[in-house]
Amino acid sequence: MDQKLPTIKEIAKRLNISVSTVSRALHNHPRIGLRTKMQVQKLAEELHYEPNTLAISFKQKKWFTIGVILPELNEQFFSQAISGIEDVATAQNYTVLIGQSHDSMERERMLVEAFRKHRVDGIVLSMAKNTDDYQHLEVLDKYNIPLVYFDRIPKGGQALSVSSNIRSGAEQAVRYLLEKGHKRIALLKGPDSLIASAQRQEGYTSALKQHGLQLDPDLIKEIDLSPEGTRAALTQLLALPQRPTAILCFNDYVCFDAIQAARQAKIRINKDISFVSFANLPICNFLDVPPLASVEQHPYRQGQLAAEMLLDIVEKRKTITDIKPVILDTELRIF
Amino acid sequence: MDQKLPTIKEIAKRLNISVSTVSRALHNHPRIGLRTKMQVQKLAEELHYEPNTLAISFKQKKWFTIGVILPELNEQFFSQAISGIEDVATAQNYTVLIGQSHDSMERERMLVEAFRKHRVDGIVLSMAKNTDDYQHLEVLDKYNIPLVYFDRIPKGGQALSVSSNIRSGAEQAVRYLLEKGHKRIALLKGPDSLIASAQRQEGYTSALKQHGLQLDPDLIKEIDLSPEGTRAALTQLLALPQRPTAILCFNDYVCFDAIQAARQAKIRINKDISFVSFANLPICNFLDVPPLASVEQHPYRQGQLAAEMLLDIVEKRKTITDIKPVILDTELRIF
DNA sequence: CTGTTAGCGCCTTCAA
DNA sequence: TTGAAGGCGCTAACAG
């Protein structure tokens, strides 16, 4: 029964020395006798001594844990991002607390509260799609808990954040379609609360303009990312007097929904209407008719960078003013 | 600057009472005057007092955190399970630490160590596919850290575990194929280290026997779950003098790989060869040619049950001897 | 009803 | 080079 784990006190008692000596020996403190040091370390070894992280955390007011809040682990984009975060955190001896907001601002708020109460050293967050009020996030400032946003970042852009260049991604995607001869390209953009929605539209508009094409507002649909919303938008697009011949979707999931709806309307995918989307998820490889192309947003890398940024601050290697938002380049993956 | 968070000491000082009184007031302890209680609670409110979880954890040798170790968050089966675990844990005021083994026993061992050092109250684990040695897991016993297995459980079955009835799931699936008239049904079973591989084979064998069919060993392939392994197995099956007309795959991912390989060999999916698999993942809904059917293993429910089981022990509502392994019924989802 | 005290495990002065 | 003492924030005897 290892019930009672050995403490430095225990070691001290057995060796008839003081706890502080033991503490120093264990930390390779300079001012300590070699003999005592060896003795202590030997006994510590034998007893399988392990420092009580809880006590250390308590003492240092720091518990080597970061919190991650994201919309949905079920979405591969985020599960890949988590891997990046986890790898970086683990390498720096931090552990990762995870919470899903399920795209609800209310849950997001609760998670932030919970993590704050648990005194995490910092938080990495990707916003819920409807988060339009940042109060619950700004609170963290007061408590000196650093917050790094990734992918779904707030408007304004002043904050610590890692994201990908959605604007140029959209531009790449639309240009690709234009080069394939498409003239009527629709855009399924996301909700206004996501900055990435406007960015998609910017890239879209700019690419069209460069090709000297007129913007048709009927071809731009704001969707809420739900399957129903996507289906409704698609119905509207198909009802247009002049149907689009290509659709740029907010992300792969939206694209899957859209493709499904289109198929039900007897549209031949990537023939009658071509689909292009964002995210480039692994599951695209399993589809027999994937989108023509998908904008790679490097979720794993984003996760890594966000975690590194956060830990740089937590560990005081950098201050907030040293840091500029990171915007990753996207790449168009053609299937 | 809320830099310094208020402590009960602070409250005590301001009110000129003792810390223990404050503590009691905050905990609605019976033996305390209503007036003082109100006073304390009012001031606590004003100062935005919040108990220091770290101090409480330290004091009580318990930090209200459970660790979850699973192979791969990217797999929807596991991300759904996590949701179940998270929901139960949150409801009971626990937080969740997550680690991915990426199906490596070595990483699994490291995560167990890390979690143990961080003094989690308990662990929920789904084994890496190659874990064939349980030493790193048995260690937890000595430290009195309860461990609940889910889905990928160890051989022997004595342990605390939640899993689904793979044997009967396989039987259902094979029976379904037999009723569709298939006579040559192949099985892509997983590695021997997973108990679920043998269980699949048992169900498979039993269903065939019930239909008075002979077992053809050539039709059973052990695969390592990698895309390459699956592809190789499929090649072998296609090279048989008498090809199978249906294949039961270890899980949906294996099934996707198999379908891809088959398609490259010009097999018409679900016509020349029918596919059936395990897991019933959400992404199946996006495939235009999904497997004919998939055995639903209720990952979310498994996660919930595993977390409940663990917390029952952690909170001492039950002892280990009270608990029997849970085996969930599967259902065949027909597409 | 309330205050005093001790202690959780560790680190960090301050003294010796 | 070592020891003694104090304290992190909180809880829980034990006394009044």
UniProtKB/TrEMBL annotation, chains A, B:
Q: Answer yes or no on keyword DNA-binding.
A: yes
- Which protein is depicted? LacI family transcriptional regulator
Keyword set includes Transport? no
Q: Where is each HTH lacI-type domain found?
A: 6-60
MF term (GO), any: transcription cis-regulatory region binding
The UniProt entry, under InterPro entries, shows: HTH_LacI, Lambda_DNA-bd_dom_sf, Peripla_BP/Lac1_sug-bd_dom, Peripla_BP_I
Which keywords are on file for this protein?
DNA-binding, Transcription, Transcription regulation
Please name the taxonomic classification of the source: Bacteria, Pseudomonadati, Bacteroidota, Chitinophagia, Chitinophagales
